[in-house]
Design brief:
The protein is of the alpha+beta class and about 550 residues long. It has 18 helices and 23 strands. The strands form seven sheets. Strands 13, 14, 15, 16, 17, 18 and 19 form a seven-stranded mixed β-sheet that branches. Strands 3-12-11-10 form a four-stranded mixed β-sheet, covered by helices on one side. The protein has a four-stranded antiparallel β-sheet with strand order 6-7-9-8, with helices on one face. Helix 10 packs antiparallel against helix 13 and helix 17 packs antiparallel against helix 18. It is globular. The two termini are about 25 Å apart. About 50% of the residues are buried.
């Protein structure tokens, strides 16, 4: 991440932290003496869909939940887990048993204490097949979790117990090297059983039918509207560090609209796109942030055409990724080398980045000649000279522009291929894709913490997020070894993950396109934002307006 630092300013000004890098903000005496309203205006590009930790499937909802709720751990600016509701964690020698002590001052917004039972209830509820959570795979190494997912055992048998009101014990079937990082994710947040029983199936579907234990509470969301607010939570355990009184959100799909509002001082931050990046290349308010997200095409392998491996590989080789990131995205994003991003993991022996070790030159670079050969093979295999594909994507500007670019690349180079683009609001797209109503889906996946499993696990045959229904025994075997017999051997585990990534690329289980980065403008009056350098998450607990 690039931060413009003025050393002189550091001596006379306040300091803001974004991505762990500090830079100065000039403040004259008149501003310093003023007491600005601690309120900011922000935006999202898609609607909020849920506040239920067991049912969230999208980045916007997860991001909002991370501001209004809190789990056992939080990831700091360096993507390392630090205690949140946890106070002490003891791990057994075999890495399979975790004893976690909780703070006694965690409170829900209804005044009730946050206890170990709230975690037990939450995790059992997520694993219960009736909940239909898409993130049950994250529990795969919990004792009895796999059997619970398929209804063979009761959720009550999950390897988690409340040994006292403020102590949690977790039993794993296999050690998880990144377990504390895993538990920092919103899927593992506590849920109040009392609240769920009160609101039933409507829990988490509106602001009023949700309770909170984090720095803010959410107001004004009725389940479908595109505006809401985060208001300081007076019952939050660490409420004294929270400076902002209110964060107003609105959904803005057009980047130009958001940019104009920022220019008019009606937004505190804006993500740039296209020509805006060029116009602001020397703007001191510009920040380039890595987001720990990979953009990709997923294929519905239950569709005969999309299931053709040679066709998928031809698609991958036809897309000029460099042109996509330089001319279409124009936000600092880089070409993907594998299904993941850089800085997830380093080779324990050589120090080389995982994304570089997992790269396969035969399936990723721009190669029209090879693409045409594979495409002709696919035509023969499918018995058709004329093929039609439909790319489903969200209707925000970035997704639509990228989809149109890919459409042009494919139709210009692969004779006889017709490509349609189907756009829709993100929640609708998510529903269609989860129901299998798609051929190709242009989407992205954000990693919550720095480990390759964050992306690779969704391609395992048992993952609920494997919406393309990719199946590979060799892939599953490599992933099982990485999180099984080799879990505590860094060198062997690393090789297992590289093997899995290479299998996925050879099969074109998905077509990785770009590693996402964002270029933001951030108002100089905004201080104290903590930016997670890997995942792109923003933490507003210590933010204030100066």
């Amino acid at each position: 991440m690039s931060i413009f630092t003025n050393k002189k300013a550091l001596l006379i000004a306040g300091i803001i932290l974004i991505g762990g890098v500090s830079f100065g903000i000039h403040a004259n005496s008149k501003q310093a003496q003023a007491a600005p309203t601690q309120k900011i205006n922000l935006y999202e590009t898609t609607n909020l869909t849920s506040l239920d930790a067991s049912k969230i499937t999208d980045g916007v909802s997860s991001s909002q939940l991370s501001q209004v709720d809190e789990g056992l751990y939080r990831l700091n600016k360096n993507s390392n887990p630090v205690n949140a509701l946890a106070t002490k964690t003891t791990v057994s020698k075999n890495g399979k048993t975790y004893t976690i002590n909780l703070r006694h001052n965690g409170r829900w917004s209804d005044g009730e204490k946050v206890t170990a039972n709230d975690f037990v209830y939450s995790w059992r509820r997520t694993l219960d097949p009736k909940t239909k959570s898409e993130f049950t795979y994250l529990f795969a190494n919990f004792k009895n979790a796999s059997a619970i997912m398929v209804g063979k055992k009761s959720p009550a048998t999950l390897g988690v117990t409340a040994t006292s009101k403020y102590q949690l014990k977790v039993h794993l079937s296999k050690p998880i090297p990144y377990f504390k990082k895993l538990l920092s994710g919103t899927t593992f947040y506590p849920i109040s059983q009392k609240a769920v029983e009160k609101y039933g199936s409507k829990y988490g579907m509106t602001a009023k039918k949700t309770i909170y234990n984090g720095p803010f509470v959410l107001k004004g969301w009725n389940g479908t509207n595109d505006t809401w607010s985060l208001v300081k939570n007076p019952t939050y355990r660490d409420h004294k560090i929270v400076k902002l009184a209110k964060i107003n959100y609105q959904v803005i799909k057009a980047t130009s609209t958001a940019y104009n509002l920022y220019q008019a001082n009606k937004l505190a931050m804006v993500t740039l796109a296209g020509e805006e990046n060029v116009q602001n290349k020397d703007n001191p308010e510009l920040k380039t942030l890595s987001s720990g997200r990979v953009g990709f095409i997923q294929y519905n392998e239950k569709d005969k055409t999309a299931a053709n491996k040679d066709l998928r590989t031809a698609i991958s080789l036809t897309i000029n990724r460099q042109q996509l990131v330089d001319k279409i995205l124009e936000n600092g994003s880089t070409s993907a080398k594998t299904f993941g991003v850089h800085n997830m993991l380093k080779n324990p022996q050589t120090g080389k980045d995982f994304a570089d070790d997992a790269y396969i030159s035969s399936s990723m670079p721009y190669n029209i000649a090879k693409a045409k050969t594979l495409y002709k093979t696919a035509q023969k295999q499918l018995g058709k000279q004329q093929l039609t594909l439909t790319i489903t994507c969200a209707n925000d500007d970035t997704s639509q522009h990228a989809a149109t670019f890919i459409q042009g690349q494919l139709m210009n180079h692969l004779n006889g291929l017709k490509v349609n683009v189907r756009t829709m609001p993100f929640p609708s797209m998510l529903t269609k894709v989860s129901q299998g109503d798609f051929q190709l889906n242009l989407t992205s996946w954000g990693m919550d913490f720095a480990d390759p499993t964050q992306a690779l696990t969704i391609l395992t045959s048992t993952s609920n997020s494997n919406m393309g229904h990719y199946q590979s025994k060799t892939y599953d075997s490599a992933m099982n070894a990485a999180d099984g017999k080799d879990a505590l051997n860094p060198t062997k585990r690393y090789q297992d993950l590289v093997d899995a990534a290479k299998i996925a690329v050879k099969d074109q289980a998905v077509t990785p396109l770009y590693e996402s980065r964002s270029r933001l403008l951030v108002k100089s009056s905004l201080h104290g934002v903590i930016y997670n350098k890997f995942s792109g998450a923003l933490d507003f607990r210590s933010t204030y307006v100066k």
